[in-house]
Amino acid sequence: MASSILASARAEPAPPSRARRTRGLAIAGAVFVALMIVTALAAPLVAPADPIRQSLRGRLAAPTLSGADGKAHLLGTDHLGRDVFSRVIYGARVSLLVGFAAVVVGGLVGATLGLLAGFRGGWTDSMIMTLADAQLAFPFILLAIGIIAVLGPSFPTLIVVIGLSGWVTYARVLRSQVLVLRSREFVDAIHALGGSVARVIARHVLPNVLSSLVVIATLELARAIVLEATLSFLGLGVQPPTPSWGGMVHEGREYLDSAWWISTAPGIVLMLTSIVVSRTGDWLRDLLDPTLRGE
Predict the structure, then answer these.
(1) Which of 41, 57, 83, 269 gives the lowest tally of CB atoms within 10 Å of its CB?
(2) Each residue of 183-196: pLDDT tens digit?
(3) How much is the mean pLDDT over the chain?
(4) Are 255 and 268 within 8 A, CB to CB?
(5) Phi first, then psi: what are they for 254, rounded to 5°?
(6) Residue 136: which domain range?
């Protein structure tokens, strides 16, 4: 009997480690984001209808496989007869384009200022960190509304405003890591051998902080997508008739009792995308954290 128990115990597979589970979740999240990107890029091939074509005879049609025009409307039509499913697909283009571009802008500005503050120190460090504290103390959504109201809603303005809203996170994290790295012995040795600051940053600092930049960028992507939807909902983002998830939620809010699918469909997609992207950032953080690799 003891031998049979031992045999069954040996045959039982070992439970997966935390790192293995985290790696699987991170891969699943990355696959979802890649699928969203492919869908957005292939929108003309995937979308069943023109997202801005109106048909007042088929307005406010419920989700169906055979509408009044003989076509399937998987997510129904809106108040102008436009196919909601097609608009959701094309809306992914806007959200992902603004999100990724804003992450690039915020990452470049924040990483540059963080490296500068960490290496130069002194009044440069104090000035950059004071600027960061001032931005954190002021509700940025109000500042974004003011800037867009003055300059007018457009793609470049939207990208710059959302991008500059996230530079503080990059700057603070990189500054703290650079302060630690610049006091290491290998940095002193490189300087003693005649190595320049640019060489130290490019060859030794950036590779050590790259994992942190990837994690921050992933988390900032989710925030940028939600912020773009918020501004579009307020009428300060992408302007009609270009479909955007926030704009679609705004357009359908007056029809929640009779045509709930107009706002619900883009709202659910927006929620799922932001959750998956942000959770992927958390999983990447756990995966790239050297203190958790052995668990």
Answers:
(1) 57
(2) 666 666 665 666 66
(3) 81
(4) no
(5) -85, -5
(6) 25-292
Give the type of residue at 214: V
195-226: pLDDT as tens digits: 666 666 767 677 777 778 888 888 889 899 99
Count of domains for the chain = 1
* 11 inside domain: no
Question: For the whole model, what pTM was predicted?
Answer: 0.82
Reference 131, options 179, 164, 174; nearest CA is 164
Q: Is residue 6 a part of any domain in this protein?
A: no
Residue 7 lies in a domain: no
Residue 263 is encoded by which pair of tokens? 């706002």
- Assess if residue 5 is contained within a domain: no
Residue type at position 279: R
| CB contact at 8 A, 135 and 77 | no
Classify 83 as helix, strand or coil.
strand
Which distant-in-sequence residues (6+ apart) come within 8 Å of 93 by Cβ? 40, 41, 43
At 206, which CATH number?
A: 1.10.3720.10
